[in-house]
Amino acid sequence: MEMEVRAGVVLAALSLSLFSYCCSAASLITPQNILNGTVGGEITFDISVDPVDLTASAGTWKFGSNVVVTWTNSNPVYTNDYKGRVEVTFATGTLKFNKLFATDSGEYTVTITTAPSTLNLNGRVELKVYDPVSVPTIQSNVTNPVEFNDTVTLTCTASGSDVSYRWFNGSSELSDTQRVHLSADNRNLTISGVLRSDDGPFYCYVYNHVSKNFSKPFNLDVKCDGNSLTTAGIVAIAVCSVLLVLAVTALVVFLLIRHRRSSTGSSKSSSPTTKPEDGLVYSTPTFLKEPGDRKSKQNADPNAQYANISKQPQVQSNTATEYAELRRK
Ligand SMILES: *[C@@H]1O[C@H](CO)[C@@H](O)[C@H](O)[C@H]1NC(C)=O
Ligand SMILES: *[C@@H]1O[C@H](CO)[C@@H](O)[C@H](O)[C@H]1NC(C)=O
Ligand SMILES: *[C@@H]1O[C@H](CO)[C@@H](O)[C@H](O)[C@H]1NC(C)=O
Ligand SMILES: *[C@@H]1O[C@H](CO)[C@@H](O)[C@H](O)[C@H]1NC(C)=O
Ligand SMILES: *[C@@H]1O[C@H](CO)[C@@H](O)[C@H](O)[C@H]1NC(C)=O
Ligand SMILES: *[C@@H]1O[C@H](CO)[C@@H](O)[C@H](O)[C@H]1NC(C)=O
């Protein structure tokens, strides 16, 4: 009798230890990484019970100390703030958000009770909700950069949470070099002693864990510095001068050829060019009203003639005719 009782106790103890061995092996599998969601987007906290023959017959999700949902036997109770926004899957305890708010970022904890074996299991999930990045814009702190002289800072601006920045010159990514400096946060690109070859196009690329975007191309319209007498400047000026001389020569040659052609082609066409001279010829009679008188006076006393008709009146007379010409036109 006593022996039987003892055997029963041993058996019970044995079965108890077997039971606890089985149960310490059961666990809740939760995402180990931080989950990254987008404002307005969806996210699922995928959890499951191991071994799979156990189900989450009851449980509670909490955000901090606030209950999100609590359920028993397929009967969930959602807290007001989460009604219609979250959904729990009873078999596993998985929680799905249909529409994320930025304020949903933080730590979530879950407690479940399994069936058919009744066990209490705990887990935690960390969520980070990001604002997606907008299309970035580029701004320069120098409106009209001058070659060699100016240091230009380009600043990239985009909305979004935890935005990271990268810069491109055409298709090549920019990094710190002798002339190029990136700020610690990569938002500012500073180019010292800009060159005309730094025209770009420059692009700013922004990203966070949930989105990315490229800016429109940005061109630096670098003007050359007329005052700086560098080798490149001198060469540029020399080339420009030669081109100017060539252009003027070409124009003169062209005009000469045209003139020669027109004068050989028709003698009448050349008459307009002699018109001003005609005017001068006409001016003589205006000035000396009595040519006959003049001649006689000249013959009689040349000195007296010079005294009367000094150079000054002649000039005045010519000027007068010229005015007359202008008026006629
Ligand atoms: C979410 O972002 C973190 C960095 O904040 C990263 O370590 C993690 O792997 C990301 N999670 C997923 C699921 O991509
Ligand atoms: C860039 O941003 C705009 C506006 O915020 C968005 O509509 C677009 O989808 C984004 N592009 C990418 C590649 O994420
Ligand atoms: C170039 O910079 C110097 C000073 O650094 C300044 O005196 C000069 O006016 C600048 N030249 C031009 C064309 O901006
Ligand atoms: C632009 O920024 C650079 C670097 O900060 C500075 O050296 C330069 O003087 C600035 N130019 C103007 C016109 O503000
Ligand atoms: C970026 O550049 C802007 C404009 O030049 C300047 O105001 C700002 O301080 C710079 N920021 C950093 C981190 O260099
Ligand atoms: C940008 O690219 C052009 C063409 O490859 C190059 O000449 C120029 O030096 C580059 N500028 C910068 C600031 O990297």
UniProtKB/TrEMBL annotation:
The name this protein goes by in its record: Carcinoembryonic antigen-related cell adhesion molecule 6-like
Transmembrane feature ranges: 232-257
Keywords, sorted A to Z? Glycoprotein, Immunoglobulin domain, Membrane, Signal, Transmembrane, Transmembrane helix
Region annotation (Disordered) maps to 263-329
Here the segments flagged for biased composition (Low complexity) are 263-274
| Top-level taxon of origin | Eukaryota
Q: Which InterPro entries match?
A: CEA_cell_adhesion, Ig-like_dom, Ig-like_dom_sf, Ig-like_fold, Ig_sub, Ig_sub2
- Stretches with biased composition (Polar residues): 299-321
Note one Pfam family from the annotation.
Ig_3
Any signal peptide, and if so, which residues?
1-25
Give the family per the record. Answer: Belongs to the immunoglobulin superfamily. CEA family.
Q: Could you tell me which species this protein originates from?
A: Erpetoichthys calabaricus (Rope fish)
Cite the Ig-like domain residue spans from the record. 136-215
